[in-house]
Amino acid sequence: MRISTSLIYDSNVATINRQQIDVLHTQQQLSTGRRVVAPSDDPVAAARALEVSQSISHLAVQKENQGTAVDTLKSLDSQLGAIHDVLDYVRERVVQAGNSGTLTLSDRQSIATDIKAQFDSLLALANNQDASGDYQFSGYKGDTQAFSGNLSGVSYQGDQGVRTLLVSNSRQIPVSVNGNELFMNIGSVNGVFTSSTSSSTAVVSDGTVSGPAAYTGDHYGIKFSSATTYDVYDTVADPGMTGAPLASGVYTSGQSIGLPDPGNAATTEIQVAISGTPSTGDTFQMTPGDSSDMFSTLKQFVVGLENTSDPGYSQMVADTLGRLDNAMENVSRLRSQSGSRQVEVEALQNVGDDLKIQYADRLESLVGLDYVSAISDFQQQQTYLEAARNTFAKISGLSLFNFIS
Amino acid sequence: MAGLLSVSLTGLNAAQAALNTTSHNISNANVTGYNRQQVVQTTADPMFTGVGFFGQGTEIATVKRIYSQFLTAQVLAADSSRVEYETYYNQIKQVDNLLSDATAGLTPALEEFFRGVQQVAADPSSVPSRQSMLSTSEALATRFQAMQSRFQEVRDGVETQIGQSVDDINALAKQVASLNQKIVTAQAAGPNVPANDLLDQRDAIVAQLNQQIKATTSSNSDGSVNVFIGSGQPLVMGNDVFQLSTTPSTTDPTRSTVGVQLIGGGVVPIPENLLSGGTLGGLLSYRSDSLDKAQNELGRIAISLVTEFNAQHRLGQDLDGAMGGNYFTALSPAGQNLPNFVTGLASTAAVTATISDVGGLTADDYVLAYDGTNYSLTRTSDSGVVYSGATLPASVDGLSFAGTMANGDRVLIQPTRYAAANISVAIQDTRLIAAASPVAASAANTNSGTGSLTQPVALSLTGILPAAAAHIATPITLTFDSTLNQFNVTGAVPATIAYNPSTNAVGASVTLTNPNLTFSLSGRPANGDSFTISTNVSGTKDGRNANALYSLQSAKSLLGGTTSFGSAYSQMVSEVGSQTSEAKVNASAQQGLLDQATEAQQGLSGVNLDEEAANLLRYQQVYQAAARCIGVANTLFDDILSIMG
């Protein structure tokens, strides 16, 4: 076998070239900390890494939103707490006002003045604005004042939109409560129907329902035919309560009265209790649940306090108390809802932190560099390169011409 | 003595010739393509005498080059493939590096863009959020454009190099032809007297030609060779050269194709798949296999994103309560009239292509042709016919066509090629971002049941009045009827929605067809409970549509609904990466083959200096010996003379 002299040089140069390329590549890996410097180094890993980094970016967006959600929910919670405090204070005043026997007219007047102040503070809370000047309780209509009006009447200007934040891939968490739900749409005391009376000497209880399905929206009237007897009428068919009653009974103060289904007298739909001393001709009305709003509850209370000769004072106080309890219950319900959402987001935050570590790990294993093996590779390549250089120098020194003189 | 003198002289001459040749070999040791030469020495015809034959010394038969046609052909074949892959690799490496760049790739821009969208979704009324969405959108558009212009630079480079390569091939072909001529003249005495150095020169030129495009040769009896390129296209026939030239492609004027110049003028294009090997082969296959595809893939992501994003944006409502317009400037498939194949003049067709289905879009280019009866749509990449029929294609590969065509008209349709270059954000005013939904729902406060309805979102513009202040004609009411277990609907189609509180209380998704809205109902509504859906007025804090826009990021809208924008890009990265590493592996494999072939060829034909040094000594000794013989003859002659004297 022959070897061409120029081939010795060419192939040596080519070998050293290749080794230098290897050394450079390893050096690039070491300096960037990436095993995959260009997609061609590992096309599959490079593509997967892009997808993982997209997931990481999703996570970052969600994390931002989770932080915002927790802050927003915390601020909502403290607002709801403040509203609850106002209502609680008002409730104490209502209880105080209920002790009619010991209250003078001027006492009632001063309570009314106090309640007016509370009304204003409630309205201010309802029109709370967040840091960016958006109304907190106006639904989607962030730059529309949520409530307008005064003691004579307050109306809701917002809508029923619920603001949400994306806190995980599939969860849009509500972070707002609309003013309608919070202040305006408070169910009747028993959640189904409301009672009212014309009597000044007797009050009707909040009433109970046999079962949610039992009451199908009938209207009832109870009319006292004497101080001790009463008749029950279907006021849809007989608004004047002049015809034949559905049922009749003997009155005992505080005893519950069952109101039968107009179509089936054997079934009792709802029950109410009347206490006090009704007079002949006094009527009590039961109509399907209507909602009340906090502002009108306060207004009616103020009007009732200021009205010196209102015969229904005690019914008014009882009604106000019932409505306030409902309003407070409504606030508490929304508060606990916001609390449980906070818990949910905090749980998601923890999951997100775990996921973030997992994704970082995944990314590292896809394109990251194993420094130990890379450094060892580098050393090895360096050794090879040096060996190639040294031997090349030796080989190129060998020539028969050196011996010809 | 006279005999001794003349015999010695032949030896002296022969040794001198051998020394000359050895020195020639040593001098040319580093000349590329040089094949070592050897003096072929034979014994001179002997002289017959009565007692037998007396040798007459030596003579030089010829100087031959040590050369193997077979080994040289092997080197040429390996070298041509190596250059092809190396060219391919050097080109695709540029794209590979571009895609890999953590800051210059598309992924970070895409992520930032959707992050901007989500910021608006999270805080729709915030002007800074909206501004940030506009900025990230601008950045995304710029990134698309930058990548596209990089692709375009690479493409321009490829086109230039194709032209240069063709010029080189022509120049080399001329050199081969002229060397053919010289060799024929030089070898007039016959093939036994080879013009070694001219042959070497010609082989070296063919080797250079072979690096531009795969070249094969066949020898003629007069010593000239014929050169064929690619898959048998003759380039040099003896003294004649068939010049190549580049012309704009008949299917895409922006790309050049290689053809043969006819003697009477005109160019006959050579199909690209016949032009393999060498720089030219590498460039052509890179252009069609990788560059076209990658550029179109990028364009497909751009045009899909723009189309989908705009469609969703138009379903939203901006801060002023107006329906959203296009967020990005709308992109449409590029069309270009090609020469009519009947008249040869430019087509007069007026055809527009529109995207009918983003999921159906491919990364191909098409030629739409009309032959007087039928329209046909053909892929340019592989000439596959995707549609043929008497009407313009209604929806083929995500495209629909409208317009008029004359007999023989041809139109080049490039749905995705220029999309990434033309992407731009259409709105500058932050108030025009349509983050809200056009409708909002509310429950009546008189409702006594627990039924509730989620805020509706629009699925399409059906029944939505973009121009009017009220986006739906009349507010829609849904009233529950407990006896029939249904909602009676007014102001929308359908007129009733079945809803059974005992089974649907956990939530039932409802879609209205006109207006086209969707929402879900849940809970136990009481008889007569009602809900109203009306135009969303002053919904500044409503981010429903922004959320829908954000969800496009992970929506699988491409490739028949299997791939998201991000995944489409990572697929493209992986494809280019695979092609690059394939080219790299192939190039190094071919390098290995070339090394082996070269070693074998050089083993035979290359100059080994040690061998030449030994030869130098050997021929020097022969020379000295022959000279000594002359010296002896001289002494003998002197002896005779001294006897005489």
Description of the structure:
The complex is a heterodimer of chains A (405) and B (645). The longest helix of chain A is centred in the first third of the chain and has 56 residues, at 43-98. In chain A, the strands form four sheets. In chain A, strands 5-13-8-9-10 form a five-stranded antiparallel sheet, with no helix packed on it. In chain A, strands 6, 7, 11 and 12 form a four-stranded antiparallel sheet that branches. In chain A, strands 1-2 form a two-stranded antiparallel ribbon. Chain A has seven helices and 13 strands. Chain A folds into two domains: 56-184 and 294-354, f41 fragment of flagellin, N-terminal domain, CATH 1.20.1330; 189-290, no CATH class. Chain A is α+β, with helices and mostly antiparallel strands. Chain B is α+β, with helices and mostly antiparallel strands. Among the domains of chain B are: 2-66 and 606-644, no CATH class; 76-122 and 156-289, no CATH class; 439-535, no CATH class. Helices cover 44% and strands 20% of the residues of chain B. Chain B has helices at 2-27, 69-100, 106-122, 127-186, 196-212, 278-313, 419-422, 501-504, 544-551, 565-605, 609-644, and strands at residues 37-43, 47-49, 52-54, 58-65, 215-219, 225-229, 233-237, 240-241, 244-248, 256-261, 267-269, 334-338, 350-355, 366-370, 375-379, 385-389, 399-404, 410-414, 439-443, 452-453, 457-458, 476-481, 486-490, 496-498, 508-513, 516-522, 530-535. In chain B, the strands form eight sheets. A five-stranded antiparallel sheet of chain B has the order 12-18-14-15-16, with no helix packed on it. In chain B, strands 19-27-22-23-24 form a five-stranded antiparallel sheet, with no helix packed on it. In chain B, strands 5-6-7-8 form a four-stranded antiparallel sheet. In chain B, strand 9 (244-248) and strand 10 form a beta hairpin. The radius of gyration of chain B is 41 Å and the shape is elongated. Chain B starts with a helix and ends with a helix. The relative contact order of chain B is 0.13. Classes of the chains: A alpha+beta (405), B alpha+beta (645). Chains A and B meet through helix 1, helix 2 and strand 3 of A and helix 2, helix 3, strand 19, helix 10 and helix 11 of B.
